[in-house]
Write a structure and sequence with these properties.
Elements lengths: L1 E2 L8 E7 L6 H6 L7 E7 L6 E5 L2 E5 L1 H4 L2 E3 L1
Length: 73
């Protein structure tokens, strides 16, 4: 299964699951990254960290290690 950290620029996907074992999983879910939501990778910084995602009409930046806990279809 792929994770949000593996997305390519402009790719839209649906969140399948969030790894609850990850220390940041609760915060990630609270800011809108929940199963069933569509996300799009809209920007990547020069050193590939952080990554900016569009979710629920908002742009949110996550570190690559945080994006690894978001499982996508």
């Amino acid at each position: 299964m792929r994770t949000a950290a593996e997305l390519k620029f402009g790719e839209k996907v649906i969140i399948n699951d969030v790894d609850t074992e990850h220390p940041s999983s609760r915060r990630i879910m609270e800011i809108g990254f929940t199963p069933g939501q569509e996300i799009e990778l809209i920007n990547i910084s020069a050193f590939n960290d952080p990554m900016a995602f569009s979710v629920r009409g908002t742009i949110i930046a996550l570190r690559r290690n945080e994006a690894h806990c978001i499982k996508i279809m």
